[in-house]
Write a structure and sequence with these properties.
This protein is α/β, with parallel strands linked by helices. It has helices at about 5-10, 20-25, 35-40, 50-60, 65-85, 105-120, 135-145, 160-170, 180-190, 200-215, 230-235, 245-250, 280-285, 290-315; strands at about 10-15, 30, 90-95, 130-135, 150-155, 175, 220-225, 240-245.
């Protein structure tokens, strides 16, 4: 078997893309999207009809222009999600506007609207994950939504502190960002790279995985944001891995053996973390320069792409 088929034997493979053709080719269990991926999809010919559908739908709404624009963006995201769900047997992750990352109530309300738009399209909660940034406010929003039966994917996660807080809040799934952790350490330490066994992003996800399994947390660990296939191979056995089409292609082209690295039956060593309250969470996160910087940078980047997407959509609507 090729490496991708071997990986599928012990890890749920998720497509990290909004490209429907790539999803059809690699047949992942689930798929994830974010504002950056939605913006990229909006430039492709096959998605122009979806943009027009959203623009025409938004024109009919009697809402203030600012609110109409946010609804328009959500409608487009849900349309992409619905197309993806025709091809995957599991779930699609759809992200809440990153500008709401520090507002629990607004995040909950926007998530409810996304769920309602999916329900209007005939898609139930059981096929959705609502993506929310792993800020303290985002984690609290996920806690509320999980109690309502809406499962959440806590994204932009760079530390075990965030991971513990997310699990204690009952989040369905977390997405630790392997590649972005690597990016920070390469720049901070002035190196070209690391072998897989010393890769800071790989080690971070391994720590979270082992911590979760040893402490009995049910939250799913889904490694994300990869920079090379070696990172993926070094996390073989993780609950889920969300992988871009380029690495799915690379893994499917290689026939070499891919050993399992992570397993709930053989939990490895890990550094434990505890979170007492909000102040403790913020202090521990503040002490982690990498996690603090990458969380802020990730929110800014998603905000920027959200604004670009909205500009494109409003131009189409007008």
């Amino acid at each position: 078997m090729n490496k991708l088929d071997q990986l599928r034997e012990y890890t749920d493979v998720v497509a990290d893309t909004g490209d429907i053709e790539a999803i059809a080719q690699f047949k992942p269990v689930d798929a994830t999207t974010n504002p950056s991926l939605l913006l990229k999809a909006a430039s492709l010919d096959q998605y122009q009809v979806l943009i027009d559908n959203s623009a025409n739908w938004a024109k009919s709404l009697e809402l203030p222009e600012e609110e109409k624009l946010s609804v328009l963006a959500d409608h487009y995201a849900v349309q992409i999600g619905c197309e993806i769900l025709k091809l995957v047997p599991g779930r699609v992750s759809t992200e809440v506007d990153a500008r709401l990352s520090f507002d629990t109530e607004a995040t909950v309300n926007r998530a409810r609207r996304l769920v309602a738009l999916y329900e209007d399209a005939g898609i139930g909660k059981e096929r959705l994950l609502i993506k929310i940034a792993s800020t303290w406010e985002g984690i609290r929003a996920a806690e509320i939504l999980e109690k309502e039966g809406t499962n959440c994917n806590l994204t932009l996660l760079f530390s075990s502190v965030q991971a513990v807080a997310a699990a204690e809040a009952g989040a369905f799934l977390i997405s630790p960002f392997v590649g972005r952790i690597l990016d920070w350490h390469k720049k901070a330490e002035g190196v070209e790279g690391y072998p897989a066994e010393k890769d800071p992003g790989v080690l971070s996800v391994r720590n979270i995985y082992n911590l979760y399994k040893d402490r009995g947390f049910n939250t799913v660990v889904m490694g994300a944001s990869f920079r090379n296939a070696g990172q993926i191979e070094a996390l073989a056995g993780c609950d889920r891995l969300t992988i871009g089409p380029n690495f799915l292609e690379e893994l499917s082209a290689e026939e070499a053996e891919l050993p399992r690295v992570l397993s709930p039956e053989s939990v490895g060593e890990y550094q434990d973390y505890r979170v007492k309250d909000e102040a403790d969470f913020r202090l521990q996160l503040n002490e982690d320069a990498m996690a603090t910087e990458k969380l802020a940078e990730g929110i800014r980047a998603f905000m920027a792409d959200q604004l670009k997407l909205e500009k494109l959509l409003i131009e189409r609507m007008s």
